[in-house]
Write a structure and sequence with these properties.
- In chain A, helix 4 runs parallel beside helix 7.
- By secondary structure, chain A is of the alpha+beta class.
- The relative contact order of chain A is 0.15.
- Chain A has 2 domains: about 80 residues, Glutaredoxin; about 100 residues, Up-down Bundle (Glutathione S-transferase Yfyf (Class Pi), Chain A, domain 2).
- In chain A, about 50% of the residues lie in helices and about 10% in strands.
- In chain A, a hairpin with a 2-residue loop joins strand 3 and strand 4.
- Chain A starts with 6 loop residues before the first strand and ends in a 14-residue tail after the last helix.
- The first copy, chain A, has 9 helices and 4 strands.
- Chains A and B meet through strand 4, helix 3, helix 4, helix 5 and helix 6 of A and strand 4, helix 3, helix 4, helix 5 and helix 6 of B.
- Chains A, B: InterPro entries: Glutathione-S-Trfase_C-like, Glutathione-S-Trfase_C_sf, Glutathione_S-Trfase, Glutathione_S-Trfase_N, GST_C, GST_Zeta, GST_Zeta_C, GST_Zeta_N.
- Chains A, B: This is 11551_t:CDS:1.
- Chains A, B: Pfam families: GST_C_3 (PF14497), GST_N_3 (PF13417).
């Protein structure tokens, strides 16, 4: 690990940023928080698009390199900091974790990007689809979960789950239909690494949104 | 590896199935092909949803376990069959590969699921977004690519790229604006593992779609 402090380009409410914040906290990696106001289009400005070609948050500068795409960042952090692991050792359990990560990050998360949610919500489309995906995740959890998503240890699946549950609630999805998701999310929200990563605890969270 | 032949539940035109077919071919893993006709809703039938809670293709039965979600399957195959690797050894390069995988599988792929494409295409919405994501991938490739997406070796990024380019063309996205994507896709389509995984070479491809 280089001596320079990592910099996380983040937006407080971005679920993808939240994932990386949680992972950094979990692994005890101290970092500088650089807010990118995606509501004002800061991610599309040249100075940002030069470090992140996708013009999304988050971006992580670490060890002299620049990383984009949250799941790729999580896997990188797991590889360079295997202490306090977020992937099990067993290949099958690792696959279960990654399967949940992809279901949440690849299927559910894209549904809640701002444009589609505004657009499709008017016909009730995206909520229905969101709920379908949650049914899949709940079914998977009924087979794999213990205290957390896969067994009794916190994994990357938990890291991506909590922000999505938070957003589901924000978009008025009735999560009481998904008791396993709900129970695990509640337990996760009590853990320090997750608490510290909560949007409300970020420097760019407006005062009126802090409870 | 158990002596039982792996079974891949697949749909010939599914880009997620195509990814896994390519990886199995690349690693020389012989498998049985079990067609799931997603146009007729076979993925929603109970016998299938019991093995795949998300009711998507692909599903892979291998070594006595059942795996869902294509990227998780690719990572699993990489772990159990590290010969003919599809991830570089260097953590930064691995992150570059996974960043492209997530950009393509997590951002671009969800745009082309059947419901959204039919629905949003009428207002030109999804094509615009698709093109925006392609711009990001092209910019990333300008930094990372050699002969293939990341350097000169075939990686998981290439495995996910080719099916998406095929679908982009199918949905009339003008890919000539993305010369790097196009050039790499052309080179990939000449490789045996990719050729064999092409929809046209699957047993469930209708005769009229075969050239």
């Amino acid at each position: 690990m280089s001596s320079e402090k990592p910099i996380l380009y983040s937006y407080y409410r971005s679920s993808c940023s939240w994932r990386v914040r949680t992972c950094l906290n979990w692994k005890g990696i101290d970092y500088e928080y650089c807010p990118v106001n995606v509501m004002e289009g800061a991610q599309n400005k040249e100075e940002y698009s030069e470090i992140n070609p996708y013009e999304f948050v988050p971006t992580l500068k670490i060890n002299g390199i620049v990383l984009s795409q949250s799941v790729a960042i999580l896997e990188y952090l797991e590889e360079i900091r295997p202490e306090k692991p977020l992937l099990p050792k067993d290949p099958y359990k690792r696959a279960l974790v990654r399967s949940l990560v992809q279901a949440i990050a690849g299927d559910i998360q894209p549904l809640q990007n701002l444009r589609p949610i505004n657009f499709i919500e008017s016909i009730g489309g995206d909520k229905k689809e969101w709920i379908n995906y949650c049914i899949g995740v709940e079914k998977q959890l009924s087979k794999s979960s213990g205290k957390y998503c896969v067994g009794d240890e916190v994994t990357l699946a938990d890291v991506v789950l909590l922000p999505q549950v938070y957003n589901a609630t924000r978009f008025n999805i009735d999560m009481t239909k998904f008791p396993l998701i709900q129970r695990i999310a509640n337990d996760l929200s009590e853990l320090d690494a997750f608490k510290k990563a909560n949007p409300q605890n970020q420097i760019d969270c407006p005062a009126e949104e802090k409870k």
